[in-house]
Amino acid sequence: MVMVKFSVFNIYVVGIVGVLLFILAVEGIVLGIKKLVENRELKKQQAQADDIRKEKKRAEKKPSVSMMLIEDNWDHAGEKPVIKVEDVTMEFHLSSSTPSGLKDYLIQMLKRQITYRKLYALYHVSFNVYKGEVVGIIGTNGSGKSTILKIISGALKPTKGKVYVDKKKIQLLTLGTGFDVELTARENVYLNGSIIGYSRKFLDEHYDEIVEFAELQDFMEEKVKNFSSGMVSRLGFSIATAGDAAEILILDEVLSVGDEFFKKKSLKRVKEMIHGGSTVLMVSHSLQTILDNCSKVVWIEQGELRMIGEPKTVCEAYRSSKAEGE
Amino acid sequence: MRETISTIRQYVFVIRELTAREIKRKYARSSLGIIWSVLSPLLFMVVLSLVFSTMFKRSIENYPIYYLTGQILWTMYGGATNASMTALTDNKSLLIKAKLPKQVFILSRIYTSLVNFGFTCIAYVLMLFVFRIKPSVTMFLFPLDVLLMLLFSMGIGYMLAIAYVFFADIKYLYSVFLTLLMYLSAVFYPITSLSEGMQKAISCNPIYVFIAFARTCVMYGEVPDTELWIKAVCWSVGSFLAGWLVFRKNENQVMKKV
Asked: What is the CB neighbour count within 10 angstroms for residue B220?
């Protein structure tokens, strides 16, 4: 029997092979990059030319859009806006091919097949929101409504333009509230509450109130995975609107969840908050909800601002444009 | 001033809530729960000692402790970085709402691994008594070593979390890399049994640096030499700064993608 220094030998080999592999990989990447850079320069120039062309097209279209603009400070002359959205543009890069894995990705990268298409989720949008206003944002699916809410709440930074708002005052409420289904409702209240900026003291004080409003007294020690979707959104709503913490409430398609009774209840809560001096920004597909609750409506279509003004006028215009489309 | 205090408080509150969730989830289905953090390194120690004790008898005294010191630190690093990697993608829906900087999600994962490590330390201290390691003042340097290593893991964690958002395959690459790194960290063999060139290479490995640091101050009761100090501090501060910069730079990009 020959005794081999088994483990030590192994380590040695593994080490060397590892280092070799690493060097090989680095070499490969460097070579690849060198080749790519040359190709890319060309592509870039083409892409730039394309962009300029597109910008021009948009610029030509522009006048017709601004014609429909109604001055948005018609009843707030001289007042300072709570939210000021200034010339915001948001660009997304959509990958035109979707590699299915590392190998594919590398191959496509080497072949320069991965190109990006620019998508303007928002294009030079500006509007103001004043204290105490209830502003509705309307537009068809994919027109950039949720994007603008995310930008205002600070989750996204715009590519161009600026948003002036005190981010600490904002409370954003969206569907799919980020509950952890493996935890109990009580634990979720604390987890979620902490993330959206409540202190432990605040949560301790308002816990009962939150539970009561959501009407979930008997379920708080239950895991959220056993909840119905209505129960989950009720809990989400009552956490976000707890106390009088939120000065600016952003509702993303929230008022249309839950049963009839809870809908009424949450609407009432929102109205109370408005009376208490809160400013509300909401997105909804239901024009009725918008008409019933808003004092101003912003209409965004394909990332561009189409109209700002009184709910009736804007909703009317929105409706008729849809009717035309059909 | 009061503002900053309340922000820090909120930070601590968020991290604790997130960590509590991590731990509850991790052990949700096991009946022993967090006790596994104590048990599993002990079991590993027993197995590895059975296998390697005789082999390295001459070069290492107290092989079980030698191994355990390396293993617990190694596990902490591996656990911390692996968990940080998916921190952003796992918390998609919370990311949009978060009022605090997005770093909290990674911080909480790091803190989770520290809590786990705390429990592991129970086993470690127990074993130190069992194997009659002489207590010495230098043992107080051990927590410092752990902190430096955490800082290092945090930097790596930041980078991995960002990379994972854009390139999910990194998960598999990293697990292979971790294995390689473990073999190069002298967790279960004496470094002196390697050739000189290899020894030099390994002594640059940050994980080995932290492990060697711990072994010097706990097992041998000595203050680590200057070289070790410099290496440990440089690695941890360097990695942290690099990770932080990468994170800051790509934060917005990540939000778009998520």
From this structure: 13
